[in-house]
């Protein structure tokens, strides 16, 4: 009894003092120390010393997908001058009555195959960008989620999503039917997991969000995440053989903390209490693709600390996403690392689209930027966190972007890319921004039915 009282006293007193370094871990015991050490080794192993090789490979695949689609005449050529939102976050926004149109190379890898449900794990071969090595639960068994409840976070019920994600072995997690899951506490996901929502309409909403902390190889695919709120913390099971005290959460949709080889694809996200996606504390080898973001202020934070220099190893690809209605800022907001922002559709922002501090390298290629009517918000970029004498040295590039309604991108840094070793033979020219509406047409959670193309 006395031990329990002491632990509770420690938890509630420490909760107000815990440094952000350990993000919601109230008791940094041997379990978490080992996880943190392993995660840092994974970061160093996943870091790509020549990031241009990754960007070149992605550009090559974009070009190949568009050439093939054009040859098959399956792409719908639309007017690029419109600011039509054309999507409904939680509706059936991506139905198509004609032939399957896999308009970007990630989708082309799997979407137009009727037997995708019989070969779900082939999805793991489709990632591109810095997260291209992510396997998720490819080497494990399938786990069928049959129960949408989340009543017991210390001893999760078999058949629930929480019970699935705390297992140690690799798992490919799928859903038996449509589900609305209200998480009572943050969902702590173990390494080597795929959360695959295809074939069901899955919403994680009106409760806590998803946390990837000191893990590797996680895929989250084809789910809706919205109306995420803070949770109070407490004793939560984070593994089959460990429970730990957690502090109050921020209310992020997905929090990636000290994790590597992460792929977030075809997510529909909106209205979370803090950020939609945060990736911080040495996380790297991340791809965020084919997502649809709406109705939010701080959309995406990549690097959260001015002093955490390990984020210099952060490498993130943001590709084929639609940044839609009622967004304010941070699409993304970056610190320290290398960020490839390619072929995204920015149809809305109220303050700015892309921001940064602590000398991040940002390569913007083939994006469409439609500025708001507000004359004070035409600039895409924001560096208000540093004086011009400092930020003018940062490498921020815009190549092949389309600027509409007065939008402009303020570039900086030397004309050549210093220390990046770009190979002109590898740097196959990306597709220009006039193709963006087609590349992002099916962004967000898809309406997939077994036995039919998605």
TrEMBL record:
Catalysis: reaction(s): Eliminative cleavage of (1->4)-alpha-D-galacturonan to give oligosaccharides with 4-deoxy-alpha-D-galact-4-enuronosyl groups at their non-reducing ends
Cofactor(s) needed for function: Ca(2+)
Lineage top rank: taxon: Eukaryota
BP terms from Gene Ontology: pectin catabolic process
EC number annotated for this UniProt entry: 4.2.2.2
Signal peptide boundaries: 1-23
Keyword tags: Calcium, Glycoprotein, Lyase, Metal-binding, Signal
InterPro entries hit by this protein: AmbAllergen, Pec_lyase, Pec_lyase_N, Pectin_lyas_fold, Pectin_lyase_fold/virulence, PEL
Gene Ontology molecular functions: metal ion binding; pectate lyase activity
Gene3D superfamilies with a match to the protein in the record: Single-stranded right-handed beta-helix, Pectin lyase-like (2.160.20.10)
Cofactor note: Binds 1 Ca(2+) ion. Required for its activity.
Domain Pectate lyase: 178-375
SUPFAM superfamilies: Pectin lyase-like
Recorded metabolic or biological pathway in which this protein acts: Glycan metabolism; pectin degradation; 2-dehydro-3-deoxy-D-gluconate from pectin: step 2/5
Pfam families: Pec_lyase_N, Pectate_lyase_4
KW Calcium (keyword) present: yes
PANTHER family: PECTATE LYASE, PECTATE LYASE 18-RELATED
Family: Belongs to the polysaccharide lyase 1 family.
Protein name as catalogued: Pectate lyase
Organism of provenance: Durio zibethinus
Gene: LOC111292312
């Amino acid at each position: 009894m006395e031990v329990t009282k002491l632990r509770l006293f420690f938890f509630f007193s420490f909760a107000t003092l815990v440094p952000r370094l350990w993000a919601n871990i109230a008791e940094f015991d041997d379990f978490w120390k080992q996880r943190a050490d392993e995660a840092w080794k994974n970061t160093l192993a996943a870091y790509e010393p020549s990031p241009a090789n990754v960007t070149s490979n992605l550009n090559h695949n974009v070009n190949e997908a568009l050439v093939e689609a054009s040859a098959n005449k399956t792409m719908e050529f639309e007017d690029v001058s419109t600011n039509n939102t054309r999507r409904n976050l939680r509706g059936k926004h991506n139905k198509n009555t004609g032939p399957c149109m896999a308009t970007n190379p990630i989708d082309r890898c799997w979407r137009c195959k009727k037997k995708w449900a019989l070969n779900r794990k082939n999805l793991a071969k489709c990632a591109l960008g810095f997260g291209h090595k992510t396997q998720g639960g490819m080497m494990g068994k399938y786990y069928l989620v049959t129960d949408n409840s989340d009543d017991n976070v210390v001893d999760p019920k078999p058949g629930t999503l929480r019970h699935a994600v705390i297992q140690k072995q690799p798992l490919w997690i799928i859903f038996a039917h449509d589900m609305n899951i209200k998480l009572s506490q943050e969902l702590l996901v173990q390494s080597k997991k795929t959360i695959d929502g295809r074939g069901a309409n899955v919403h994680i909403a009106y409760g806590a969000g998803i946390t990837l902390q000191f893990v590797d190889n996680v895929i989250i695919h084809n789910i809706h995440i919205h109306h995420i709120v803070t949770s109070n913390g407490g004793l939560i099971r984070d593994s089959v053989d460990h429970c730990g005290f957690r502090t109050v959460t921020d209310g992020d949709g997905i929090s990636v903390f000290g994790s590597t080889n992460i792929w977030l694809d075809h997510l529909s996200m909106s209205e979370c209490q803090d950020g939609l996606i945060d990736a911080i504390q040495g996380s790297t080898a991340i791809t965020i693709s084919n997502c649809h973001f709406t109705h939010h202020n701080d959309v995406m934070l990549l690097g959260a600390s001015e002093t955490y220099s390990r984020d210099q190893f952060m490498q993130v690809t943001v590709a084929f996403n639609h940044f839609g209605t009622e967004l304010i800022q941070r699409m993304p907001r970056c610190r320290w690392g290398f960020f490839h922002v390619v072929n995204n559709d920015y149809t809305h922002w109220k303050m700015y689209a892309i921001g940064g501090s602590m000398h991040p390298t940002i390569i913007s290629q083939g994006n469409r930027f439609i500025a708001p009517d507000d004359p004070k918000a035409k600039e895409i970029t924001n560096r208000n966190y540093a004086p011009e004498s400092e930020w003018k040295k940062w490498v921020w590039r815009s190549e092949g972007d389309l600027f509409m309604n007065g939008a402009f991108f303020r570039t900086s840094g030397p004309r050549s890319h210093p220390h990046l070793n770009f190979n002109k033979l590898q740097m196959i020219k990306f597709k220009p921004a006039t193709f963006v509406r087609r590349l992002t047409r099916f962004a967000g959670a898809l309406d997939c039915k077994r036995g039919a193309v998605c």
